[in-house]
Specification:
This protein is α/β, with parallel strands linked by helices and 495 residues long. It has 14 helices and 21 strands. Helix 4 runs parallel beside helix 5 and helix 9 packs parallel to helix 10. The longest helix has 24 residues. It holds the Pfam family Aldedh. Keywords: Oxidoreductase.
């Protein structure tokens, strides 16, 4: 027996309309079988035709923009301005991955010619990446477009040649349906599908036709699905982004020279989008003393100026209020508190580095405009506290040019623990670009060798195949001698 899918107004909590029934387990099996049938069709279109499909999707999303933004605003309360920008980012992602597949470097072509004199003798070897097959994608609550149905996971998987089945997020089902209709209009039959419901999501991960999963959401939900994916008779990759408590470090030199700027900028980053970003700065490390106090004063002053707002869902609001209350009990000092429903404002608490080192500080992620100020006494105190943290998606460092030794040590430590380091800036905002990494060691993600944003996101949906002594006429076009593809020949790059 399946339940109903209801669209809810984020601002009032009232039902807007019924979208339809949740997807049954039997329907999941049919949908995934159709995706498997569509796989060779999408794969064999070739890179140029897939690039054109991605560009067509971007154009169709823009054409549906007014309807998409209106539905997303009603279901998330994120505001038309923010959502219009998110739609632009979403369309850019599709066009960006069209560039990625036209470039061809993602195929990682390598050729080693036969050499009878090698030890041992080497046969003719030609390797490239190939699409893995149908994949499942789970949309996020906080980005109803850019990390949802038409999000980066969907764009990168389609670019690779993989059909996509998206599990809609229950926070914005109407937005999901509008976006899904756009993709279905453009793509071959079966190459895209949308499903609803928790049971449907679990069945999707376990369906034998699904070859990989992309997920953005909570650590608890992601870990449950990860466990399903790896406990299958044929375990599959699960690329989960599970949230993060991201450190922002203010060095003594930076506090001395830029206290007001850093405090204000950190508050703006922490409260952006009501703190509902996985990249917000959750832990703010400041040096003890006069200059550190100036940073904290600017941070608190700016945070108190923030206008309380509605969070994405009732569940998120309740979790924020509960998490902020729990943190207040664990912290030494309460700096700011506006954690109440329905409109919520920032909560800031304060602890010292020793509490972090001893595991007695509030270090769990609180989704929303929440932050912890950590006072440290000297470099060793700072490094001991940073070492005690769980790995994260991103870290930010505010330092001065004169602090070379300290800066170098911070880079070394943070490189081991995060996927992106921001220097004299703020971590919110992830560019769609060739060099971007949006990932990190567990629990930030379940696959630290991969990214969910940037050109390398496509690698999650590929696997390598080596062709040994296969006649040239039978090889994929990208592996033939006449192909203009970027490649390595005998280990040397050939452009």
């Amino acid at each position: 027996m399946t339940g109903k899918v209801i669209s809810v107004d984020a601002r009032t909590g009232k039902e807007r309309r019924e979208i339809g029934p949740e997807t049954s387990v039997e329907e999941i099996a049919t949908i995934c079988a159709r995706a498997a049938e569509a796989f060779p069709v999408l794969r064999d279109l070739g890179r140029e035709e897939r690039a054109r499909l991605l560009e067509a999707i971007a154009g169709e999303l823009e054409a549906a923009g007014k309807e998409l933004v209106a539905a997303a605003d009603a279901e998330t309360a994120l505001g038309e301005g923010r959502l219009t920008g998110e739609l632009a980012r979403t369309c850019h992602q599709f066009r960006f991955f069209a560039q990625v597949i036209r470039d061809g470097g993602y195929l990682d072509v390598a050729i080693d010619h036969a050499d009878a004199t090698a030890t041992p003798p080497r046969p003719e070897l030609r390797r490239m990446m190939v699409p893995i097959g149908p994949v499942a994608v789970f949309g996020a609550a906080n980005f109803p477009l850019a990390f949802s149905v038409p999000g980066g996971d969907t764009a990168s998987a389609l670019a690779a040649g993989c059909p996509v089945v998206v599990k809609a997020h229950p926070a914005h089902p109407e937005t999901c349906e509008i976006a899904a209709a756009v993709l279905r209009r453009v793509l071959p039959d079966g190459a895209f599908a949308l499903v609803h419901g928790m049971a449907a999501g679990a069945a999707l991960v376990q369906d034998p036709h699904i070859r990989a999963v992309g997920f953005t959401g909570s650590e608890r939900g992601g870990r449950a699905l990860f466990d399903l994916a790896v406990s299958r008779p044929d375990p599959i990759p699960f690329y989960g982004e599970l949230g993060s408590v991201n450190p922002l470090v203010v060095t003594p030199g930076a506090a001395r020279r830029r206290a007001e700027e850093i405090g204000t900028g950190t508050a703006d980053s922490l409260t952006l989008g009501m703190g509902q970003f996985c990249t917000k700065p959750g832990l703010i490390f400041v040096p003890r003393g006069e200059h550190g106090e100036a940073v904290v004063a600017a941070l608190v002053r700016r945070a108190r100026e923030a206008t309380p707002g509605v969070l994405l869902t009732e569940g998120i609001r309740e979790a924020y209020v509960a998490g902020a209350h729990r943190a207040r009990q664990e912290a030494t000092t309460l700096l700011a508190s506006q954690a109440q429903a329905p409109a919520c404002g920032p909560t800031l608490v304060r602890v010292d580095a020793q509490a972090v080192i001893d595991g007695k500080a509030p270090l769990e992620e609180v989704f929303g405009p929440f932050g912890v100020v950590v006072d440290y006494d000297g470099e060793e105190d700072l490094f001991a506290a940073l070492t005690a943290l769980r790995p994260a998606l991103v870290a930010a460092v505010h330092a001065e040019e004169s602090e070379t030794d300290l800066a170098s040590r911070l880079l070394d430590l943070l490189t081991e623990r995060v996927g992106r380091i921001v220097w004299n800036g703020y971590p919110t905002g992830v560019a769609v670009a060739w060099a971007m990494t949006h990932g990190g060691p567990y629990p930030a993600t379940t696959a630290p060798g991969h990214t969910s944003v940037g050109a390398n996101a496509i690698r999650r949906w590929l696997r390598p195949v080596t062709y040994q002594s296969v006649p040239l006429s039978l090889l994929p076009i990208s592996l033939r001698d006449t192909s203009p593809m970027p490649r390595r020949l005998g280990g040397r790059p050939i452009l």
